[in-house]
Structures are given as structure tokens and as C-alpha cells.
Amino acid sequence: MQDLANASTQPCNLNKENYVIEMRNITKRFGPLVANDNVTLQLKRGEIHALLGENGAGKSTLMNSLFGIYHPDEGEIYKDGKAVKINNPNDATALGIGMVHQHFKLVEVFSVLDNIILGVENTKLGFLAKKQARKKVLDLSKKYGLNVDPDARVENITVGMQQRTEILKMLYRDNEVLIFDEPTAVLTPQEIDELMQIMKNLAKEGKSILFITHKFNEIMAVADRCTVLRKGKYVGTVNIADTNKESLAAMMVGREVSFSVQKGNSQPGECVLRVQDLCLKQKKEVLKKVSFEVRRGEIVCIAGIDGNGQTELVHAITGLIQPTSGAVYLGGENITNKSIRYRSTHGMSHIPEDRHKHGLVLEYSLEQNMVLQRYFEKEFQNLGFIKFKKVRNYANGLIQQFDVRSSEGVISAAGSLSGGNQQKAIIAREMDKEHDLLVAVQPTRGLDVGAIEYIHTQIVKSRNEGKAVLLVSLELDEVLDLSDRILVMYEGQIVASLDNSTKRSYSELGLYMSGAKRQKQYGGKDDE
User: Fold this and answer.
1) Phi, psi (degrees; rounded to nearest 5) at 510
2) Angle (nearest 5°) at CA 398 between 375 and 457
3) Are 223 and 235 in contact (CB under 8 A)?
4) Which positions ≥6 away from 135 have C-beta within 8 Å?
5) Residue 508 confidence (pLDDT)
6) What pairing do the DSSP bridges indicate for beta strands 333-334 and 385-386?
7) How confident is the model at residue 185 (pLDDT cuts 50, 70, 90)?
């Protein structure tokens, strides 16, 4: 069998007339960084084509060049066999090319409907003609099982619902080439299954789909072919029917990758985090008397379908919101009313769910972001003056250790990094900081398989060193592989506490996550 880790650097030589899109010999540079180095990609009409690569391999750059956000320095783009110039997203839309971005392009104060029709509004006598638009949106929503409320404000809906809004934007414009950039990174397992089916249905209707993902199970489930990039270069294109996820992983990172987490049994110690009767009332009761403990030397995972109170629970624990009642204790101290900085300097590290809102200052450099919570410490300042050389050396060490890739190293603006590298920067900062408790929310979201392997190893290492780890994840594989105990949330309450020393099943977790089962200790009928 061909060594796929060293596959041919030439694209498959298929019949040209089958291609709806060809990107020939694309090169794109950002200063000294060559993001795409002579890359060729060929998309057949009606196929689902996966684009796979490590964080920073150039996948999003290539797709942004196709969508007109970037302009290649070299190479040509062909649509239906004809050379085209795509100067901006409007040109791409006119050619029938749509894109769902990894970080959504939505106006938060607008309604779902207004976001979908933005830029392609129909008017009558100078007034927006929304009735017809609303009908089309509702028809599309029903047809593809997207189930959105067109009148809801984007700022008030879940991340998963925002993803659906982005997909509807693309479908509303009748695009025939659909680009999905990490579309499942923020979706629940159920929503992912639904999206996979939607993509299959779109392909059956003749749509052509380019699909950026790090998730091998999704590639194997829906893709017809897969093109792999590594460090900006083309590695190879394979038919999915002729390969497996181990071979794809080897192509992607150039070595064998382990898909299983190696960890022994936990040795729980003293309680580090105690949450007692935590309640939060916003428009409705979001948290209802949530109580649990996390001890040294264990990984406790909060599992549940997105929107069941996990986000609000983490925000209350980390100080981003104030609970209506109840208490949070860190190392025996009541920190319910303490500031975020106090929690940070007293042993809490936090990998947030939303890396842009709560994880990074995008306009700051990478080195500034690495010391956001520590710049005031003696190590990094003297008499109020920053020790810039010390900061740079520290940031460089973390960048090297966690393989954070950027165009200009530590002086790169955080906002210029790929989503996966932004995530790695946050993880590096939070895990290196002295802490007793690590609160990790979707820690591997948007990361490639090599980075996931490394981060999982680091989380287990923290646990083995006697740290307490509270993990919140929508990835059931991650929940089952990493956790020592699993707490399942449903409608703002904990409905089950499961020992995971013998690995639980997907179906068992699913019953608790959907509310079909509840343990006796949480007001249900089921024993542990």
C-alpha cells in the first residue's frame, strides 16, 4: 500500500470537464509566510470534497482566496472550465459560490431574517419586502431541518443556531458551490448528524461542497474525496472509499497518530472546586440548584446538548456572570463575589468557549496575549514598567512548546492567526499558568488531530500532577476518553453523575442528555 504520509504532490489527473471549480497552482504569501505554496484543488460537480490539514496548513486561506477575501499572488481559478477573477465576495456570490466561515459573519443586533437577506434585499416602493423573504427562509429551514426563528435576535440565540443562520444565508442565495469552514466545530452531536444529512441532500441536488474539517469520522461519513495540505503544500488527493482515518492522519501530520487517550485510574484528593445550589434566572431559570465537586487528581466532565446551561454554569464559576443564588468555593474559599482577576491569581485557569469574546484581545500581539493575566507579576514588570524582553522570551517558549503558528511569530496580531492557532495560544497560556483548577470548555475545538493528541496528553498530565480539571465538551468521544466522572446537564440541572472508570456508551449518555433518563439522586427513577 502506498505510504500516504508521503503521498504524491500532484493532484489527481481526472477529466477536466467534471470540475465545477479548479484552483491551479495557487500561491498566497503573508510577508515571509507562504500560506499556500503552489496548491491545486479540483472540485467535481455534485461531490462533497473534504479539505484536511493541520492548524495553519493553509486550508482557510485557500478557501478565502476562492471566496474573494484574499487574492492569490500566483495561480488561476476556473469556474466550469473558464478562468475567472474573484476580487471580492460579491464576485464569488455572482458566480454561485457561497461560504460559511469558521467565525460567523453575523450582525448581532439584527434578527436572523435580516442577517440572511443582508446584501440581497428585495424592496417595493423603497420598503423592504420581507414577506416573500420570510417565506423562502422558512421553506428552506423546513426543507433542510434547520429550524430557526427568523425573528430572533442573533445576540440572543445559541452558537449552534448562529451556525444554522450562516448556512441559510448561503442557501438563500441559491449558491451551487458551497464552502463549509469547520462547520461542526460548534454543533452538538445531534446537530452534526443533521448537518451531515443536509450536506448529502445538497450534493444529491447537484450542489458541489468543499468541506474543511479536522474530524475524520465526518470525512469518512460524507466526503467523496479528500485533499490534504501540510504546511501550505499539497500532499495528495484520495478517494474516501480507498482510505481510512489512520492513513489520512498520517498524510496530514507526516507521522502515525494515536486516536486513544492513554490514562490510568484517577486518584482523587481534596476538594478544589465546590459548587453549591447554584441558580441563575435571566428571562427564565437557566440554572436550577446545581451542586457538585471537583477534586484534585480527577477530570470531571460536564456533558449535555448545547444550550442546557453549560455556558452559564461556566460563566458563574469563572466570574463572567453573577449567579442569582448559591455559592462557588475554590480551595474552600467562597469566591462567588470575587473578581475574575482574583480567581485567576488564586488558582483558576480558564480555557473559554468563545476565544474571541473571552480568550484573546485580537488587536494585541501574540506575546501581549500570552501575559494578559500575568503582566503585573514581578517576573514581567518592575515598578510598573513591562520587562519586554522577559515577555518575549516567555511567549516564544510557549509558542514553541505548543506549536502556535503565525506569520510573524510573537509580534503577530492574535486576530491574524488561524482559529486553531488562536485556540492553541489560549491553551498554552492557561495551562502554563500556576493553577489548582483548570476549567476547560471545548478545549480542542477547531484543532487538528495532532494538536488534539497533545492537548489531551497535557490535560491528563495536569490531572496526574494533582490538579483538578473541569472539562465541558460537546464532543462525546472527548467526554468518554478523558473524563473520570461525567455530570450530565439537561435544562439547567444535573440529571446524572456517572463513574467513567469503565467507559460509558454513547446511547447511555444520549438518554440522559435528551432528558429521557434521570438518576434517583437528581429526582428521577434510575439507579446508577
Assistant:
1) -60, -40
2) 125
3) no
4) none
5) 86
6) unpaired
7) low
Cα separation, 477 vs 474, whole angstroms: 9
The mean pLDDT value for 54-71 works out to: 90
Relative orientation angle of helices 449-464 and 245-253, to the nearest 10 degrees: 90
How many Å apart are CA 137 and CA 438, to the nearest integer?
Answer: 42
Higher pLDDT, 2 or 385: 385
Q: Where in the chain is the domain with CATH 3.40.50.300?
A: 4-96+175-253, 258-347+435-528
The residues, any chain, with a CB within 8 Å of residue 193's CB and separated by 6 or more, are none
Alpha helices in 67-158 (DSSP H): 89-94, 112-117, 130-143
CA 211 from centre of chain:
14
* Residue 239 pLDDT grade (very low, low, confident, very high; cuts 50, 70, 90): very high
Per-residue model confidence as pLDDT tens digits over 201-233: 889 888 999 999 878 888 999 999 999 999 899
- Residue 439 near residue 349, CB atoms below 8 Å: yes
Cα dihedral sign for 233, 236, 239, 242? Answer: negative
CA distances from 191 to 178, 185, 306 (A): 18, 11, 10
Tell me, what's the pLDDT at 1? Answer: 37
Secondary element (H or E) of residue 326: strand 325-330
pLDDT tens digit string along 75-128?
999 999 999 999 999 999 999 999 988 777 889 899 999 999 888 787 777 777
How far is it, in rounded angstroms, from Cα 293 to Cα 493? 15
The span from the CA of 443 to the CA of 82, in Å, is 43
d(Cα 478, Cα 365) in Å, to the nearest integer? 31
CA 222 from chain centre, in angstroms, equals: 19
Instruction: Give the number of residues written for the chain.
Output: 528
Q: Running DSSP on this structure, what letter comes out for residue 503?
A: P
- Computed from CA positions of residues 257, 26, 175, 240, in that sequence, does the dihedral angle turn out positive or negative? negative
Q: What is the DSSP letter of 410?
A: G
What phi and psi values does residue 65 have, to the nearest 5 degrees? -70, -40
The amino acid present at 391, given as its one-letter code, is: V
Residue in 488, 481, 434, 425 with CA at minimum distance from that of residue 456: 481
Q: What pTM value is reported for the model?
A: 0.70
C-alpha cell at 333: 474559599
Looking at the predicted structure, is the pLDDT value of residue 486 above 90? yes
Write the CATH number of the domain with boundaries 4-96+175-253.
3.40.50.300
> Which CATH superfamily groups domain 258-347+435-528?
P-loop containing nucleotide triphosphate hydrolases (3.40.50.300)
Span 462-469, average pLDDT: 94
For residue 494, report the phi and psi dihedrals to the nearest 5 degrees.
-85, 130
